[in-house]
Amino acid sequence: MLPSRNPFLRPAPMAPEEIGDAGAAEFPNSPHVTDPRPKIDCAARTSAPVLLNWLPVGRPCAGTVEISGGDTLPLDNVVLAKLDVPDTPELRARLTELTCPDGVELQPANNYEARDPSGYVFVTVDRSGKVTNVRIRSGWTDHIRPDAFPTVLFTTYMTAVQRALAVELSHRPESPSNQPAPDDTYTDPAELSFEEWVSRTQSRLNAIDAEYDAIRRQQQARAAEDVTEIRSPLGYLTMHMRGGGPVSINGDPQALDNPSDTVLSEEILQLFVRAGLGVAPDGESRPTQSRGSSDDAYDEDFSEIDMFEDWND
């Protein structure tokens, strides 16, 4: 159980289990007292939802807050929450695998290729993540079962898109427009009275809550969208899409056991072209549904797809 939002405005004693991994808050004369000098450390292992339930990082707290029972919580010892983005060995290894395949660091290019572990399925995408070429080597059925082929294909495609995204973003210059403009109205929090600081913090928390709720509503709306099916020209493969992004690829094992590698390669490319995720040999992309318009094609193509979702599994 997480603490209620804005705890310093509506404080109440919290048992250690109510804080969870963030640490325990113990108060004098409370049933959970172990230290008469209370200290809340929320920075240990926190996540975005926890961050929204605590005050933003700004300055050391000063003063006290009255809690139920007549006790007071000295704010001098309170450590405010901060967002800790995971930096795990697995994540670093995955990023290295994407940006430095075979030990060679990739530089921004027009095309990025990925291959499956067997080395029989190759998918090439352009810098915006659209499939430009698919190559299936002859004899692939000796290494990949036909019923497993659609999953192998989808995974290889996702790896190619992730590689394009990782390399492009790692070499993308920071836009000057992203720099915050100087704020002439800035006031050092240390110069504010405690009441004014709490008032400003309340306003900031309300704004964060509103933004978080808007994101949650948007995600719920996408999850409620119907899944559409896109079939390849010969019907060997079917792509399931939701919200403009691919969800999975299915196929007919019996049909996949027969076509030549050339026919299958073309069948796959045309599947992505039909879904608006590929570029036809004539250089045109023919989506079956509108994907909107944008001056920045790179941002448009990736805005609706969480290409790094599997990193968090």
Write the layout of secondary structure elements.
Blueprint: H1 16-19, H2 48-52, E1 64-66, E2 72-74, H3 89-99, E3 111-115, E4 121-126, E5 131-136, H4 149-170, H5 194-223, E6 228-231, E7 237-242, E8 245-251, H6 253-256, H7 261-274, H8 297-302
Jot down its keywords.
elongated; 8 strands; 313 residues; disordered N terminus; three-stranded antiparallel beta sheet; alpha+beta
Q: Can you tell me about this structure?
A:
This protein is α+β, with helices and mostly antiparallel strands. The chain has 2 domains: 1-85, no CATH class; 89-170 and 224-312, no CATH class. It has 8 helices and 8 strands; from the N terminus they run ααββαβββααβββααα. The protein has helices at 16-19, 48-52, 89-99, 149-170, 194-223, 253-256, 261-274, 297-302; strands at residues 64-66, 72-74, 111-115, 121-126, 131-136, 228-231, 237-242, 245-251. The strands form 3 sheets. It has a 3-stranded antiparallel sheet. Strand 1 and strand 2 form a beta hairpin. The chain is elongated, with a radius of gyration of 26 Å.
Could you write a compact summary of the structure shown?
By secondary structure, the chain is α+β, with helices and mostly antiparallel strands.
As a percent range, the share of helical residues equals 25-40%
Radius of gyration: 26 Å
- The total tally of domains equals 2
| Average pLDDT taken over every residue | 72
Strand order of the largest sheet: 3-4-5
Shape: elongated
Order of helices and strands: HHEEHEEEHHEEEHHH
Q: What class, by secondary structure content?
A: alpha+beta
**Beta fraction of the residues?**
5-15%
What is the first-to-last residue Cα distance? 23 Å
Number of helices: 8
Q: Major sheet, described briefly?
A: 3 strands, antiparallel
Number of strands: 8
Q: Which stretches are low in confidence, meaning pLDDT under 50 for 5 or more residues running? A: 1-62, 288-305
Biased composition (Acidic residues): 296-313
Region (Disordered): 1-38, 278-313
